[in-house]
Write a structure and sequence with these properties.
Shape: globular
Radius of gyration: 21 Å
Structural class: alpha/beta
Number of strands: 13
Strand content: 15-25%
Length: about 450
Amino acid sequence: MPSTTDRKLTLIGGGGVRTPLVTFGVNDAAQALGARELVLWDPDADRLAIMAALGRAIVRAEGGDLIVREATSIEDAVEGASFVMNSIRVGGIAGRAADERIAIQHGFPGQETTGPAGAAMALRTVPIAIEQARLVERHAPDAWIVNFTNPAGLITQAIANHTGAKIVGICDTPTELFHNIAHALGATLADIECDYVGLNHLGWVRGIRLHGEDVFDRVLADDAMLDKLYSAPVFDKAMIRALRLIPTEYLFFYYERRRALANQHRHGSSRGTEVEALNVSLIETLRDRLGANDGPGAIAAYAAYLNRRSGSYMKLEAEAGSAFDPEATFHIDPFRVASGYHRIAIDVMSALTGAKPATIVVNTRNRGALPDLPDSDIVETSSTITADSIVPLPIDRLPDPALGLVHGIKAYERAAIEAALTGERPTARKALLIHPAIGEWDPTGAMLHDLLDPTCQHC
């Protein structure tokens, strides 16, 4: 990537609720990124205008020089960009809520990236993500696509398989777990080294070193430490010790499917439904505050939204709690937290410019790093990132408890991508049959009809 101090960065899906965080991150790291402007594009012009205005208020509050503007078209957004971040949600948050509700009605936990709802999201998103990546190839051939779009591993795989675009997928889940491990040990992230293996939303820590000393057994043996690793009590400690693996929280929807579903039934809702309500309230508040020229008030409202959303994470599925419970909130500065999508994205892009080389867990081609999978498979693993280069670090073979799940999900991804591109319903049913969190043929027909038939999408 050529050295420049005048880079254009683009965010496709700029009307989304992550956009102000990304804007803050780009502005904060503008020097390392060489960023002149952040260009936002979204098919929802109203949402786009609100998020762009909030982004400009954030830049003013922080004293930055970053130009934040709305693109007139996706081609305008992409043309000449150095980085193209994509964070799209086909069907919007209402689509997520409907998908999760339908999954629950058919007897499966409702979760946006795993199980039936995750499959529906993938089937809708793959063709659009590939089309947008091809636009990047044409209009910004040197650009890196930084994929936020969920299900992140599958979407990154689809783009890598069907375009020549340079792509990396990011997720804050592994790094968040690393931070929690460091906190449990009374240490900082720089003090520890975690041996992480897996796929996006399907990963495990299988080794921990503190100042070079192996402390994995110490962590496994300590109930208080294990309690500090998750935002809610998602896993039985006896299970973690039996596996000798510390799972990321999304394994809850594989290891504790019945508990997740029972809690969703008890609550009578899903996370997606609650987030939809939070988002509707946020947009109304931002429209009012920004319309009154109250940038600081809009920023404060957005920060409060982030704290309630993050503070209630996994509470519903693990405990039948709610995002609207009084205690379900944080009281922190969400812009300056040590982890989060915006932090990972900025660290990855800063490393790819050559300004700040780093080792980061990302979703990238395997290229021999994990012996159990083909070189072309997208895996989530620690990678050395330098100027215009991502090289996954070699890792040991998958442990037996992870082996079947990882191979099952990669087989599911291949079938789901094929189904998304061909539109063949039997292939989509096969994908759900293969999925380790579904694994039945009979319910897939009616369930896919409800998930994918436009007349039923928001029923």
